[in-house]
Amino acid sequence: MTMDRTISNFIRALRNADVRVSTAETLDALGAVELVGYRDKAYLKRSLATVLPKTVDEKDTFDACFDQFFDFQDVRGEQSDSELSGDQSEEQDGEEGESGDGEGGGSSGEAPKGKKKKSKSKAKKNNLYEEEEEADLGPGEITDPKSALGQLLMANDRVELSMAMGAAGEETNVRDIKIFTQKGLYSRRIMDAMGLPDLNREIGDLRTSPQVPARRLGQQLKARRDFLREQVRDYVEKQFLLNADVTGKRLREELLRKVKLSNVEHRNFRLIQEIVYKMAKKLSALHSRRKKIYKRGALNVPRTLRHNMSYDGAIFDLHWKSVKVDRPKVFAICDVSGSVANYARFMLMFLYSLDEVMPKVRSFAFSSDLAEVTELFNRNKIEDAIAKTLRDYGGGSTDYGQALLDFKKNCLDDVDNRTTIIILGDARNNHGEAHAEVLKEIYDRSKRVIWLNPEAKLAWNTGDSEMRKYGAYSHQVEECNSLMHLERVVGNLLKQIA
Amino acid sequence: MGDIEKIAASVASLQESFEAHNYICSDQIATAVFLAYQLRKPILIEGPPGVGKTELAKTAAEMFALPLIRLQCYEGLDESKAIYEWKYGKQLLYTQVLKEALDEVLQGAKGFTESVKRLHEFGDIFFSEEFLEPRPLLKALKEENGCVLLIDEIDKADNEFESLLLEILSDYQVSIPEIGTVKALAEPPMVFLTSNNTREISDALKRRCLHLYIPFPDADIEQRIVAARIPEIPPELQRQLVAFIHELRTMDLKKQPAISETIDWARTLVLLHAEALDPKLVTDTLNVILKFQEDIENVTTEVSSITARITK
What we know:
The structure holds two protein chains of two kinds.
Chain A: H1 2-16, H2 23-36, H3 41-51, H4 56-93, H5 97-108, H6 112-132, H7 148-155, H8 158-171, H9 182-193, H10 196-207, H11 212-243, H12 245-258, H13 269-287, E1 294-299, H14 301-308, E2 320-324, E3 329-335, H15 341-353, E4 361-366, E5 370-372, H16 374-379, H17 382-393, H18 400-411, E6 419-424, H19 436-445, E7 448-453, H20 467-472, E8 476-479, H21 483-497
Parallel strand pairs in A: 3-4, 3-6, 6-7, 7-8
Antiparallel strand pairs in A: 1-2, 4-5
Chain B: H1 2-7, H2 11-20, H3 27-39, E1 43-46, H4 53-64, E2 68-72, H5 79-82, E3 84-86, H6 88-106, H7 111-123, E4 132-134, H8 136-142, E5 148-152, H9 159-171, E6 173-176, E7 180-183, E8 190-195, H10 203-207, E9 210-213, H11 219-229, H12 235-249, H13 259-271, H14 279-289, H15 293-300, H16 303-311
Parallel strand pairs in B: 1-8, 1-9, 2-5, 5-8
Antiparallel strand pairs in B: 3-4, 6-7
């Protein structure tokens, strides 16, 4: 029963970390655990890795989760008995509580991981001594602590301590923890609920006390308080892992979807990328059932015969070999000058993440002169290609007229009535020649021209914006400055080209 | 049968047995096969091309002494190629022959109703097992002592085909409308699916399978693979060769050399009686491991520095 609980808790943590685990897979995991057992951790990890995560990304997440989760279980189990034996050794040699503690952990330790962690915490404590250059008071008698928490700590009863910790956790509603920045807050609250202020006061008093035994107790209590702090932090960490991680992430994702793309901070790029992929995947799933268009080809003899069996071999229901009509084309023309670069980045990311359902995309970038970057995208990873595009073509002053002329010169011949052209730009032409007649030509030849403008609608046609002229020759004009807009536009696009 | 159970009794014995059949596998691979056998689940294998995905299934068949039934997937593959097909030629022929006999059958029948009734009596014969041409999936179910079923490059087939597979993967059975459900005999087939990840496999399919990702192996395992496949290779050459390939995999290449390329290269070098790598030898044989002219050009400039690094 407890084993099942462990697995289902682990699966909960996995789900929180965005690994999709179905009920059937949970059952498989239980079956695997029954076969493999918990004894050999690496073996268990390998086994669960074939059952639970089903993509390479999920496997990475799984690895991290597994290490975190099972490491935890170990350390907790481990520490409780090491502490007990530490307790005994402490009673024997009276004063040297800390080192006795460590040795006890060593002798009773089984899992190497737990041991390592243990010795680390011990080293930390030793450091603490060094930093403060505490006088070695030597062995000797110790006074009794007065505060409740102090008594609990000196009694060294692990069970009592963790029960107190659990109770304090309940009291502070640690389960409601939402984002990782709250970890410190909750740790402190739990410590406070356990009676930290009293303890601190007592330690302060003791350390200034003229009596050696009292000072000794002060040192002891201080060390144990630090140890407790670590314990509480671990406890909160685990609660966070189980309850909150994903909620916090979702919160941020939700915000990022709505925020203007030009305002996205650089550190959030990775998360945005993830969101883009996720959105793209959703759209892919939605549109992958797209109807296939077939063109009639030569007579399919076997099929015809087969279907006419029921008519006594008289052939009157003909079947044809079909040829799939090749996919429509999408041209994306992006302004990558400073003001619009960020939008271009995410739109290109979106388009290329959709390669499963999206027809062949050819992309062009310009600030003044236009260049085709399709090759760049085919040969590099999306992120690299985008970075290179922005580096090589961004930064000039925008000239839409010139870009349109370039497009006409280079690839107007490739535009036909199956082509959808997406232009992303703010249409701010620096008062140059707009060459809207070129756009009209493109408009006439193509299936659709969609103009996406990252500026708010109110700002269109103000100053040097040529939106009115260009808008006339677009089938569709949209404001597009957040991921939500992007998702809608691309979703519609998929519907139309299908 | 006993043999299979003995081999698949533990991960270690599987690994040993794979090794005896010249397939060096990591713990992860052995664990996956172990679980697949014990839990009677299909394995979906993903990884870059040339890391031995198909080979794993082939070796497993050889090791368990089971027949290997292979279904190569491609765009447009459908049930008539994968599961079953009616032998329409035979059906046609029989209809023609029976035409003659029709009079006899109907002799003495009074009225239309009775004639139809008599015809019904043998009407279903045309859609019985006699006229059924089993394709790989059905064949695999009908193997009495079990078999290894390899569904190769599932990502090349259409989405619809995946749905077709779901029944056989989860319940080891297929439904044929005219006949009914065909279930696997005593021992269900061991199913291996491979994918090169040219598209995302549907969640429904993934849910029914164990998932094994085979990456490029680390140098140690790759050396053992080379040694197992080409025993006559000098040890020093083998080390250098694997080290060289691993250096290549860290570079930006259109196609990274896989294990199959490593083995081809080792074979080439053995044929040339090489004892150690030197820049000229490498440059001359580079086309064995690199399949794009651009890659070859990129690497050629680096050859001497890489060789120097690994032969020192």
